[in-house]
């Protein structure tokens, strides 16, 4: 991690200069051209706490325990450059466009981000083509720059559909939004695939400068890759080497559908948010696989800044006093259930406590503590009984984020 901070030092010094959120480059034709950058360096540390027990009460051998530990037990500490995003964007009288790329080392290779062209049809409606985030998760649609926690929730990471190539129509009113999208694969080779469609609607029955109540529903339907599908998720730690819950490969899968419900209350410096998602994987020769997940979180701006809300998305404000910065306290509980019929994917429930500090517009420091509780039944070759795996690690996460 020391080498990462050394590489980030020039950007850190740049961020200490007078604040700016993006760099305006030029005006070409009717387009105002600007560039942005986002650098995130993470480090995760894990305290192992796992055990294995045969359901028939028989003892496991030393070799069997060693095999289980290597596959289902040890979480390894890691540090990495989580994101290195660069965005070129333009805006005209009736349109906007973006081209973004993430050169992060955490994925082993770079990948395309938002690459789209959007045009305003009238005062309420827009149309967009290209790659963009699909309309099925409030947390996913929120800017990565303003994530409340270092890792998004189990719910979002397991069931959220992020960026895909597609076409979208979106409408917005004073208190409502509607977004419909059809999509295909991700632009970067070797990443997410599958044709599908998504729909999201939101309504704010209460909306003023200090209080906003947000309600929303969403749905995604999409094809699976070949005849297989899989649901798994890391334990609220993006750099973790293990998924503690995992459905395994589900053969004869034809398609999947995900339904979501979301709610948020913004009360000045307080933000309460919750989402629930339920996914069904349709299968030909066996019973459909159903799984679900939910989270509830609370964020409080200790320095008093009020949260913002626009077009069905909440936003983090700038610090009232840039030199002091904006301080936040964060708390989240999330859970996922991947057991259904003959599929023993496991169950996990996590509690996350966090502190965030935004300094000016350019620097953000984050620290999270995650208490994990997971249970899963597995099979081991040569062992006739199912084995109960209990893995409850403590996780400490830290992030340095620089925004230009």
Summarize the structure.
The chain is mostly beta strands.
Number of strands: 25
Which CATH architecture? Beta Barrel
Mean pLDDT metric: 91
What portion of residues belong to β-strands?
over 45%
Question: Please, could you describe this protein's structure?
Answer:
It is a single chain. With 404 residues, this protein is mainly beta. It has one domain (39-82, 110-403): Porin (Beta Barrel), CATH 2.40.160.10. The protein has four helices and 25 strands. The strands form four sheets. It has a 16-stranded antiparallel barrel with strand order 2-4-5-6-7-8-9-10-11-16-17-18-21-22-23-25. A two-stranded antiparallel ribbon has the order 12-15. The longest helix is centred in the first third of the chain and has 14 residues, at 2-15. The two termini are 22 Å apart. Mean pLDDT is 91; it is low at 7-20.
Attribute tags:
404 residues; 4 helices; 16-stranded antiparallel barrel; Porin; globular; mainly beta; two-stranded antiparallel ribbon
Outline the secondary-structure elements.
Layout: H1 2-15, E1 23-28, E2 31-47, E3 50-54, H2 62-73, E4 78-91, E5 95-102, E6 111-120, E7 125-133, H3 138-141, H4 154-159, E8 163-172, E9 176-183, E10 196-207, E11 211-223, E12 228-229, E13 232-233, E14 245-246, E15 250-251, E16 253-267, E17 270-283, E18 289-301, E19 308-310, E20 313-315, E21 326-340, E22 343-359, E23 363-378, E24 387-391, E25 394-403
Antiparallel strand pairs: 1-2, 2-4, 2-25, 3-24, 4-5, 5-6, 6-7, 7-8, 8-9, 9-10, 10-11, 11-16, 12-15, 13-14, 16-17, 17-18, 18-21, 19-20, 21-22, 22-23, 23-24, 23-25
């Amino acid at each position: 991690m020391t080498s990462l901070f050394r590489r980030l030092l020039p950007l850190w010094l740049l961020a200490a200069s007078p604040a700016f959120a993006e760099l305006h480059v030029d005006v070409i034709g009717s387009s105002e051209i600007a560039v942005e950058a986002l650098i995130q360096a993470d480090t995760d540390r894990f305290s192992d706490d796992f055990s294995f027990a045969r359901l028939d009460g028989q003892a496991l051998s030393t070799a069997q325990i060693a095999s289980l530990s290597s596959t289902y037990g040890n979480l390894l500490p890691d540090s990495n450059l989580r994101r290195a995003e660069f965005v070129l964007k333009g805006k005209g009288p009736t349109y906007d466009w973006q081209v973004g790329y993430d050169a992060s080392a955490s994925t082993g290779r770079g990948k395309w981000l938002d690459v789209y062209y959007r045009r305003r049809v009238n005062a309420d409606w827009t149309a967009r083509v290209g790659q963009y985030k699909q309309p099925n998760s409030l947390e996913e649609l929120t800017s990565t720059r303003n994530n409340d926690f270092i890792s998004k929730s189990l719910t979002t990471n397991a069931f959220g559909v992020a960026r895909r190539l597609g076409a979208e129509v979106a409408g917005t009113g004073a208190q409502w939004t509607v977004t419909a999208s059809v999509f295909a694969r991700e632009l970067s080779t070797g990443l997410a695939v599958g044709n599908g469609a998504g729909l999201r609607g939101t309504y704010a029955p209460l909306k003023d400068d200090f209080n906003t109540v947000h309600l929303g529903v969403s749905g995604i339907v999409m094809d699976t890759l070949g005849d297989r599908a899989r649901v798994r998720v890391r334990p609220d730690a993006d750099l973790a080497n293990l998924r503690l819950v995992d459905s395994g490969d589900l053969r004869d899968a034809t398609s999947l559908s995900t339904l979501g419900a979301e709610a948020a209350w913004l009360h000045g410096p307080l933000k309460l948010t919750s989402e629930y998602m339920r996914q069904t994987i349709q299968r030909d020769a066996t019973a459909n696989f159903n799984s679900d997940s939910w989270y509830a979180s609370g964020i409080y701006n200790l320095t008093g800044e009020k949260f913002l809300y626009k077009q069905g998305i909440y936003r983090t404000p700038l610090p009232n006093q840039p030199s002091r910065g904006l301080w936040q306290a964060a708390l989240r509980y999330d859970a996922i259930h991947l057991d259904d019929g003959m599929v023993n994917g496991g169950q996990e429930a996590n509690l996350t406590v966090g502190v965030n500090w935004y300094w000016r517009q350019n620097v953000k420091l984050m620290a999270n503590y995650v208490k994990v509780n997971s249970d899963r039944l597995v099979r081991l070759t040569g062992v006739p009984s199912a084995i109960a795996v209990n893995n409850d690690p403590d996780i400490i996460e830290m992030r340095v984020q620089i925004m230009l």
